[in-house]
Design a protein that fits this description.
The complex is a heterodimer. Helices cover 41% and strands 17% of the residues of chain A. Chain A is built from 17 helices and 17 strands. Chain A has helices at 5-15, 30-39, 56-62, 74-77, 95-111, 184-194, 216-221, 223-233, 235-279, 289-304, 320-331, 346-350, 352-360, 373-378, 380-383, 400-407, 424-437, and strands spanning 20-24, 44-48, 67-70, 86-89, 118-122, 133-134, 148-150, 172-174, 199-204, 210-215, 310-314, 339-343, 368-372, 388-393, 410-418, 440-443, 449-452. In chain A, the strands form 3 sheets. A 7-stranded mixed β-sheet of chain A has the order 3-2-1-4-5-10-9, sandwiched between helices. In chain A, helix 1 packs across helix 2, helix 5 runs parallel beside helix 6 and helix 9 (235-279) packs antiparallel against helix 11. The relative contact order of chain A is 0.08. By secondary structure, chain B is α/β, with parallel strands linked by helices. Helix content of chain B is 42%, strand content 16%. Chain B has a 7-stranded mixed β-sheet with strand order 3-2-1-4-5-10-9, sandwiched between helices. The longest helix of chain B has 50 residues, at 235-284. Chain B is elongated and about 100 Å long. Chains A and B meet through helix 9 of A and helix 9 of B.
């Protein structure tokens, strides 16, 4: 609840004239110094944490006589403490723990004839307001433990999400959100409903939610505290919270961008290394190193320019380029893009080398399709992908009609490579297409010719989905 | 500005009785259908976007006569449109564009004797409220173009950040934040200051900031609109906005976790492919046994990434094992040093040569002979995350291995390999 300190926690504790406080769940101990510095030398702070992320001995030395650390579960400790003026609750985020923490705080107060402490609870909003989290499920009696699983959460989804997706996928989260005895907010609500004196509860619905709960009697006695709560609920207070919330959101966004871009850089570096290895393998030896470097650069361009569609290899007597293209798609996990190999007789040996090469590189899967040229002519829509990003025209395919059918499907800015040994009919079909659409032409390695379709050829669709992992994933919606 | 639609924009447009609306900048066209359906029959929505991320013809077919798409820059279009009841401005986020968009909207209204449209502007907060962004700097006249660069931004920093830091690193952002003629909010402020009739401006400081600007005359004529603005700024309205901001924050957070997790898994798969290649090359080249290298890889894969410390590979002729350890550190982008300890001084050179051959020199690596390692003081720092003993340690090597085992990181460091059975870690 650290970010709430200036805007809410400090002014409320001051107005409540809190002298003795307990903090349940201290994370890295950031609050300790803030509390003692702000509330002065008479402050007595008890911190309860079974697994502190800091060295409490340092605080004990620095704040000798003012600071008591309890390395234990809150429910084992709270009943034995003296009555508190205020309690900051940010420990185990589940109904059982929170409800009983509040109950123990009240019991101690009653036993000493003291008023209920001012209660500040973090995580009353999403995700744990109405869903239990168990840091250690075995700490919670079975009858109060909801069904849980280590899986992530998404806002608006009552159930957990699979496959490591969502928020906090490694924590033990209740399988279902909502319902009785589930979540921190529910723990507070149940406590307040049972409480025999009127209470005021103010909820600040930002940064996972902070609740401030205080007895009405205390507000009557401490008008400054009532005024602080009024301020937080006023338009000016809400405006201040809005600004704070936006600050917190932007900070997180920048952190997320950094992680995202660092990972992208790292991924592309390793992909390049892996592809460098592939270029040395016998499976692609039918292509030269220069030819494969060029193909990699063209595939990079296809991704960078968000050119939609699949890779089609026509002929494939030299399986090197098609094999490498599959390795490229695999390395970058562009699983939406497949490789379609079209040969005169795909099952009669024409594609055997390609199959063997893919096998050797552990790249053979159902994202490679082997099709007969005849079948393409008979049923283009049933055999060819709807959209093609890159075409490799090799020797061994002399049917200009097949070339035409594939080029009809070429995406704007799509690439076509015609190898030096390509059949004259195929060469002529590509040249005619290039003239018709005004495609750019470039000489490539090994006597190949590369063509680039215009950015808005007759296919004409605008750019849509980017490749998996492109920065489109992280568009921020300005 | 899509998230503002339901709580803010829709009620404001309703209260304003808007029939003719222009949307500048439509992103993926997410809210087009919502807007058209909300405005109802007889209304017309003009959408302007030079590079739409969607197919506008679908909407044109679905809403004939009620949806007009203009694939052009806003400043080339707005002057030719009929007067509008409302304008949603979320196009190119710079002073020149926004200031002149507002100017054209007013000009068209004046020429037709119509009132100023209700103006709704996105991105009046950070980062582009006081800093220009140019989607394509060539479209902005030089005299209105701030010095700019593709570099990231951070709140509270006027200057752009060094490479690889901050938000929106790949966009053309003005070098400096603030000052005259810089940013969306400045353009709005300049427009408002020059406007010859009193205006009410409502600014909502969340999700990059939204501003609503309405002439007081219109508010006097349309009390429902004044009431709608009062509601947005009232306690309940603000509470809804707080909740909206939190929802956007946690949603982005959950999305980020999912994306990060996916990228981590991707990296693990890619690293495995690369390391398979390294292992194959080394065993084919007879540098080492395939089984031995696979055992080392298992030990490296099993290592808890949170355990701090280096990776030590020790033995007699461990070039291949050392190379695999280096390739692992590189492929997983780990913050670990690799220490390769050869039994004999003559073994050091072949290790270095192999690392160079496999292009692994970029990994922080230290290659030493056992005697030199024994003579040196214990390395400072957290100790070893992994000690991999590649060959049966004999003689002087035994002594060194014992010492290395004693230096294993107390929190989770491991010993593996040929001599692991004989050597127990300290903890």
């Amino acid at each position: 609840m650290f970010p709430f300190w200036e805007v809410a926690v400090a002014p409320v504790l001051e107005a409540a004239e809190a002298r003795r406080l307990v903090e349940v769940g201290a994370l890295r101990g950031e609050n300790t110094r803030l509390i003692i510095d702000r509330l002065g030398p008479q402050t007595e702070l008890h911190v309860v944490d079974p697994l502190p992320d800091f060295d409490p001995a340092e605080h004990e030395r620095e704040f000798a006589g003012q600071y008591v650390f309890h390395r234990d579960l809150s429910l084992n400790v709270l009943g034995d403490l003296p009555p508190m003026d205020a309690a900051l609750i940010d420990g185990d985020h589940n109904w059982y723990t929170v409800y009983n923490e509040l109950r123990l705080l009240r019991e101690v107060a009653r036993a000493h004839d003291a008023p209920l402490p001012l209660l500040l609870l973090h995580d009353v909003g999403w995700p744990y307001g109405h869903r239990d989290l168990y840091y250690d499920p075995s700490n919670i009696p079975e009858e109060f433990r909801r069904d849980w699983r280590r899986a992530g959460m998404e806002p608006g989804k009552v159930r957990l999400v699979p496959f490591g997706a969502g928020l906090n996928p490694t924590l033990a989260n209740a399988k279902v959100e909502g319902g009785p005895r589930n979540g921190v907010r529910r723990g507070l609500d149940d406590f307040v409903a049972e409480h025999d004196r009127p209470m005021r509860v103010v909820v600040l619905p930002i940064y996972f939610g902070l609740a401030i709960a205080v007895e009405q009697e205390r507000l009557d006695r401490q008008p400054a505290l009532a005024a602080e709560l009024d301020r937080l609920e006023s338009p000016a207070g809400k405006d201040q919270l809005l600004r704070l919330a936006e600050e917190i959101r932007l900070e997180a966004l920048i952190f997320q961008h950094k992680i995202f871009y660092d990972r992208e850089t790292s991924l592309s570096r390793i992909a390049r290394r892996y592809l460098g290895q592939v270029k040395e393998r016998p499976a692609v030896a039918s292509a030269t190193r220069a030819g494969l470097d060029e193909l990699e650069a063209q595939l990079d361009a296809v991704c960078r320019e968000l050119v939609l569609g699949h890779v089609v290899a026509l002929g494939v007597t030299r399986p090197g380029p098609a094999t490498f293209a599959k390795a490229y798609l695999e390395a970058h996990e562009l699983f939406g893009r497949h490789v379609h190999a079209v040969a005169a007789d795909p099952d009669g040996g024409d594609l055997d080398d390609l199959r063997a090469g893919l096998e050797a590189l552990d790249l053979a899967d159902d994202r490679v399709h082997h099709t007969a040229a005849e079948a393409v002519v008979a049923d283009p829509a049933g055999t060819l992908p709807e959209r093609v990003a890159l075409v490799l025209v090799d020797e061994g395919l002399a049917d200009g009609a097949v070339v035409d059918l594939v080029l009809d499907r070429l995406a704007p800015s799509g690439r076509v490579a015609v190898s030096a040994g390509a059949a004259p009919e195929a060469v002529a079909a590509v040249a005619a297409w290039a003239d018709r659409v005004g495609a750019g032409r470039e000489d490539g390695a090994d006597g190949a010719t590369w063509y680039v379709a215009g950015s808005s050829n007759e296919a004409g669709d605008p750019v849509g989905a980017g490749p998996a992992g492109s920065s489109a994933d992280h568009a921020e919606g300005f | 500005m899509f998230p503002f639609w339901t709580p803010v924009i829709a009620p404001v447009l309703t209260a304003a009785g808007a029939r003719n609306v222009v949307e500048i900048g439509a992103l993926r066209g997410d809210n087009t259908r919502q807007i058209i359906e909300h405005l109802g029959p007889g209304s017309v929505l003009h959408v302007i976007d030079p590079v739409p991320g969607f197919d506008p013809t679908a909407h044109e077919r679905e809403f004939p006569g009620r949806y007009v798409f203009h694939q052009a820059l806003s400043l080339d279009v707005l002057g030719d449109l009929p007067p509008m009841d409302a304008a949603l401005v979320d196009g190119d986020h710079n002073w020149h564009t926004v200031y002149h968009e507002l100017g054209l909207l007013r000009q068209v209204a004046r020429d037709a004797g119509a009132p100023l449209p209700v103006l709704v502007l996105h991105d009046v907060g950070w980062p582009y409220g006081r800093r220009d962004l140019y989607y394509d700097p060539d479209t902005i006249p030089a005299e209105h173009r701030q010095p700019h660069r593709r570099a990231g931004m951070r709140p509270g920093r006027r200057d752009l950040l060094p490479e690889g830091e901050g938000m929106s690193q790949d966009l053309c952002n003005a070098e400096v934040e603030g000052g005259p003629r810089n940013g969306v909010r400045t353009a709005l402020d300049d427009f408002v200051a020059e406007h010859d009739r009193p205006l009410r401006t409502v600014v909502l400081p969340l999700y990059f900031g939204l501003a609503i600007v309405v002439e007081e005359e219109r508010l006097a004529r349309q009390p429902a609109l004044a009431a709608a603005l009062d509601r947005v700024e009232g306690p309940d309205g603000l509470r809804r906005l707080l909740e909206l901001g939190e929802l956007l924050r946690v949603r982005a957070m959950a999305h980020h976790h999912t994306v990060a997790r996916r990228a981590r898994d991707h990296q693990a798969r890619l690293a495995a492919r690369y390391l398979d290649g390294v292992t194959r090359e080394l065993s084919v080249g007879r540098h080492a046994s395939d089984a031995g290298l696979r055992e080392l890889r298992r030990a490296l894969d099993a290592l808890d990434p949170t355990v701090v410390g280096d990776v030590v590979v020790v033995g007699d002729g461990v070039a291949a094992e050392g190379a695999v350890a280096c390739a692992h550190v590189l492929a997983h982008d780990l913050d670990r040093t690799v220490r390769i300890v050869e039994a004999s001084p003559t073994g050091v050179e072949p290790v270095r040569n192999l690392l160079a051959e496999l292009d692994l020199a970029a990994v922080p690596v230290e290659v030493v002979a056992a005697d030199d390692a024994l003579g040196a003081p214990a390395p400072a720092g957290p100790g070893h995350a992994l000690v991999y003993v590649a060959t049966e340690p004999e003689g002087g090597l035994r002594q060194l291995v014992d010492r290395l085992v004693g230096e294993v990181a107390p929190d989770g460091g491991v010993v593996a390999g040929a001599a692991a059975a004989g050597a127990a870690p300290r903890h």
